[in-house]
Specification:
Radius of gyration: 21 Å
Mean pLDDT: 93
Number of strands: 10
Distance between the termini: 21 Å
Order of helices and strands: HEHEHHEEHEHEEHHHHHEHHEHHE
Strand content: 15-25%
Largest sheet: 8 strands, mixed
Strand order of the largest sheet: 1-4-5-6-7-8-10-9
Shape: globular
């Protein structure tokens, strides 16, 4: 995206209050509804779902339980949802920008900017974090301001970088990433290694930004963060898809494959492979060798793609 395009989207949508609630496997309900809406189906028989490509979502226990409640074996798209009240985790969503045209640092496919969708913790989490960890300042021990996190009050669990082309009607998901959980585990591991040699060591003796006690830090990392570990990537991906569809009005979504993404964005090191293999397949993306038009018509990315042997992407219509 050009810088002005990012600023225009943020100016139009950035101040809206967005609350996003997520429970494990919620994406199955949303994607099922989106796919049926795209087919202009208000109702569908469960037997038809089981026989078609949407069957991948029906294997989840929560979805299977909801299907049993459908009268006459028919799914009503508007009213279909989980049967029980589940403990959904609340998040707030904010928008930011990333990139200044430096491919080596920004890791953007078109040497331009990205719109960033930030998935932030709610105030309840933040209160527990402040009480247990007692961060010494606003820049906490599990954040990195060198990444596109929110820096003015919200605490970002994960973010999604989006390259949007309104001309071609495409969105390329550049990355989905998380610092907070990874850094929290590394910090605790580092402190534990010090304490194995000197049991009286306090967290602040190792990480000055932490004023909380060792036991409180363990409680935070091992207990308070546990609910987020198994669903943060799902939540971030679904939040991005809903934003792309509902707010931007775009239906064609691409996502990098592992090898092509590393080479095209000049990624140093290797990101978690599952984020570029398991996650897109989980959400119904299909691998394609068709180059996104937004990249094929851009002189920089087109040149980089030519140097990649057998480039590929994941693609999905939403």
């Amino acid at each position: 995206m050009k810088s002005q395009d990012v600023e225009d989207v943020i100016a139009c949508l950035g101040d809206e209050r967005r609350i996003f609630r997520y429970f494990k496997d919620r994406y199955c309900f949303d994607l099922l509804a989106l796919d049926l809406q795209r087919q202009q189906l208000a109702q569908v028989k469960v037997a038809q779902l089981k026989a078609g490509p949407l069957a991948r979502y029906l294997q989840k226990p929560l979805l299977a339980s909801a299907l049993k409640q459908c009268g006459g074996g028919v799914v009503d798209v508007k009213s279909f949802g989980p049967v029980d009240a589940v403990q959904a985790l609340p998040f707030s969503i904010t928008l930011g920008r990333w990139g200044d045209g430096d491919r080596g640092w920004d890791q953007t496919s078109r040497n331009q900017c990205n719109l960033v969708l930030q998935l932030n913790f709610d105030s309840g989490h933040n209160a527990r974090y402040n009480r247990l960890v007692k961060p010494a300042n606003a820049y906490g021990p599990f954040e990195s301001y060198g990444h596109p996190v929110h820096q003015q009050g919200y605490k970002t669990l994960a973010w999604v970088r989006l390259d949007i082309d309104f001309g071609t009607g495409e969105v390329l998901i550049e990355e989905i990433q998380n610092d907070w959980l990874r850094k929290a585990e590394r910090v605790l591991d580092r402190i534990n290694r010090r304490r194995s040699r000197s049991p009286q060591v306090k967290p602040q003796d190792v990480i000055r930004a932490i004023n909380g006690s060792y036991n409180d830090l363990v409680t935070y990392v091992e207990k308070e963060l546990q609910p987020y570990r198994n669903l943060w990537a799902e939540a971030a991906m679904l939040a991005a898809i809903r934003f792309i569809k509902d707010d931007l009005g775009i239906s064609t979504v691409y996502y990098h494959s592992f090898d092509t993404g590393i080479k095209l964005k000049r990624v140093g090191g290797a990101p978690p492979r599952s984020m570029y293999t398991t996650l897109p397949k989980q959400f119904g993306f299909e691998l394609t060798t068709e180059v996104p038009e937004m990249l094929a018509t851009h002189k920089h990315s087109r040149r980089y793609i030519k140097a990649i042997k057998a480039p590929s992407w994941f693609r999905r219509e939403v």
